[in-house]
């Protein structure tokens, strides 16, 4: 059973919902062999939008996004966090970010846990809300 963890705790797991999911291209490049656990999980309060070759989670009430909660090996955590920030083009405070890394509670198993989630940055989210294509059911794999 997973329990809730304080969002300020070091070493938060990651909630992944697109190309970092098991079986997807970036999972093999970034996560394979660097995780302790990968569990199905749900992020509520977000809608999934189709992007160019990858999805964006946009924070919106009423939506749910399917993904996995990925717990990194402690010895790999710092490097993995830096690599994922680069992959997602996230730089703290940069107004040109595609994604923002935020701590959010996700449902996992019969409980919940806080995790890092890469959500669409404000300018990207505004464009997606105006003219983007939502992915029905919130599952990027199911869109194909």
TrEMBL record:
InterPro entries: AIG2-like_dom (IPR009288), GGCT-like (IPR013024), GGCT-like_sf (IPR036568). Residues 14-141 form the Gamma-glutamylcyclotransferase AIG2-like domain. Coiled coil: none annotated. Pfam families: GGACT. It comes from the Bacteria. This is Gamma-glutamylcyclotransferase.
């Amino acid at each position: 059973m997973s329990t809730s963890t304080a969002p300020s705790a070091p070493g938060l797991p990651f909630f992944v919902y697109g190309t970092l999911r098991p079986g997807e291209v970036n999972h093999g490049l970034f996560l394979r062999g660097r995780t302790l656990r990968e569990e199905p999980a749900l992020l509520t309060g977000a809608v999934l939008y189709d992007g160019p070759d990858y999805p964006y989670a946009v924070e919106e009430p009423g939506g749910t996004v399917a993904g996995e909660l990925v717990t990194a090996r402690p010895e790999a955590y710092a490097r993995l966090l830096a690599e994922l920030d680069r992959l997602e083009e996230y730089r703290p405070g940069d107004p040109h970010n595609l994604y923002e890394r935020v701590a959010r509670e996700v449902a996992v198993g019969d409980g919940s846990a806080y995790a890092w989630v890469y959500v669409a940055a404000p300018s990207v989210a505004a464009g997606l809300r105006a003219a983007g294509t939502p992915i029905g059911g919130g599952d990027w794999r199911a869109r194909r």
